[in-house]
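Problem 12. The chain below contains 278 residues. Write out its predicted structure in token notation.
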Amino acid sequence: MAKTLRTSGDYTITTGTGAAGSNTVFLDSKTTRVVGDLVVDGTRTELNTSTMAIEDKFLIVNKNNSTADSEDSGIFFNRGTANDAVLYWDAGDDEFQIGTTTNDSSVSTISNITLGNLAVATPAQNDHAATKQYVDSTSASTVQIAGDDSSIIQTGGSTDTVSLLGGRNISNTTVVGADSITFNLDNDLTGITSITSDTSNGNLTLATNGTGDVVINDTLTFSAAASTPTATSVTKIYNKTVGGGGTGVFFINSAVSSGTEGELISKSKATALAIALG
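Solution.
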């Protein structure tokens, strides 16, 4: 038999001394439905149910917090005798953290956290989190070293490798400015077959330390005929079509013969001239 109790004002059920006492109100029924809002003004709400269904689209955690980033907040997961797992917002570091903790849910700041792993799917777009396997495989197939001016050194393919070779010869790597990496070498270079200036018509300078000499231990080859360079206060050596000197090796210096080029004389030419001149 249904029964309805209606009042024109508030209706209060008090057991013993109320909230300060130890008495309990039991609602013993298959279903208890609250048609209006339910407000629980206590320090603890406990649901001893196996399944809880929530219709709300969003849940507010730490509702009464009124100070920006003053308290951590999140969800604790009971693990029995093991440390609780926790997913929470770290107010001090402004980031989400996940792991296990020896703290309990009564704290306002989690002071002990052992970070845990988070399993995610293979990312499908740029703002998705990536798995370690995805990062490893992607890094192995594509490596880009890009500068602010969009210049890129790139490799593609699952077996491609970017290597800085030289072993002990590369002693230090320093980023000295935008788009600039300098390698300082402190040992002899070996296995070098070509050195080329990267500037059109640019010079290639070999400079010694102090009074040292540039030493060539093997044959010095002039691979192509050169045009006569402009005479300056330094001596320039170059090769052209063989002339009266019989060598094809020429030099020019503004301080010699008013800057007129001269050809080095071969031994046979020098001997012939000596005989001819007596």
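Discussion. Residues 145 and 153 are 5 Å apart (CA to CA). Students who got a different answer should revisit the alignment rule from Section 12.3.
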